Amino acid sequence: ADYCFPHNRWYIAAFSSELSDKPIQRTILETPVAIYRNSSGRAIAMYGICPHRYFPLGLGKIDGDALVCPYHGFAFGDDGKCVRIPSQQTGAGYYQPTYPLVERGTLIWIWMGNPEKADENQIPDYRKFGLDQPGWAVSGHDYIQLKARPQLLVDNVFDLTHLPHVHNQVAGGDSLLNSDQEIEELSDLVRLTQVMRMPWNPYFSMLWGEESRFEEIRNVYAVSEFFGPELVSISGPIARPIENRNMPPEGGIGEVYFIHGITPETKTTTHYFSIQTRNFRVGDDEFGNYLGASDLVIRNQDKTVLDELEKWVDYGSSRQNELAVKTDRMSLKVRGVIQRLIDAERMPITDTRRAPEFKSPAPTP
How many other C-beta atoms are found inside a 10 Å radius of the C-beta of residue 258? Predict the structure, then answer.
């Protein structure tokens, strides 16, 4: 299909720590983009193919505030203007396309859609889940390239019943098979709350420490929030006494968020950004490193499954209707939201803007 994912969204282009005065080349929504910092440290995103001989600009260098193509030395300013062509000692009066970038906290957000609709207020409020907030610790910041389409990752994070099968090292995952589920469609997100009855287990011990041990069975919440096709956060486990079943799940022993940044690369590949935040054991860097490493194991297990699934999903879906079950309700709801966003803009996945043909000046007689 031509309309695979919405364009008019802010997607994570990179972690802030990835950017320097050495450009990186990253394909986003099937469009090659060169991303770098200028001399003042501001993040810049520019169409990543030189209009002269189509060499990738992300392999170039920064000279002052100009991105220089390493093939013939064409140089482009922050605004995309071609400021230097060495063989002519001048620029070309041509502007290379650029893309809006916003740096917030540790994340670089890019807008690949209609630039007139690029409203920074649409960037998900990262403070909600503890990024760049006092009293919270951040770990992870891992990048994974999936050889699978973004929708498969979105489906995966909203169906946690795969935990006991794919991530069987996580204690208590089988409790998700019989959890109570509630779906809420709010103005800015879709929320799935899952409630399980669980005893203390080794995963809780790793997370909260033995000093937080409880002896009774408790309600344990996992809350998954869909902010848009670009971002999903999963908070939990959050443990509460059984008698407080109707209390909101915030608080408890402590909150941990597993943040999933989902950026389409092509129709069948995805940039996957992984972060964890927590409001307990905040000064415990050793624990933070362990939490990040153990979460990365889980996400790489997902990568193995999704990369394999991508090889077969088109073949399988062309021959059988998908067999949906009750735990697929959230995935189906989210698919509908994404499809409505796509239908609203009806913009092809490929960037149809073309660089104007370069005209050499007439030779001097």
Answer: 23
DSSP string, 306-342: HHHHHTTHHHHHTTS-----GGGHHHHHHHHHHHHHH
pTM, 2 dp: 0.87
CA distance 160 to 176: 7
Asked if CATH classification 3.40.50.1000 holds for the domain at 10-117, the reply, yes or no, is no
Would you state the structure tokens that stand for residue 93, as one six-digit string?
């009066």
Alpha helices in 209-312, H assignment, sequence order: 285-310
Architecture of the domain delimited by 126-345? Alpha-Beta Complex (3.90)
| Cα–Cα distance measured from residue 97 to residue 57, given in angstroms and rounded to the nearest whole number | 12
Q: Tell me, what amino acid is at 299?
A: R
Q: Where are the domains of the chain?
A: 10-117, 126-345
Kindly compute the dihedral angle of the four CA atoms of residues 333, 335, 339, 341, in this order, to the nearest 10 degrees. 70
pLDDT tens digits, residue range 218-255? 777 888 899 999 999 887 666 555 544 444 445 467 78
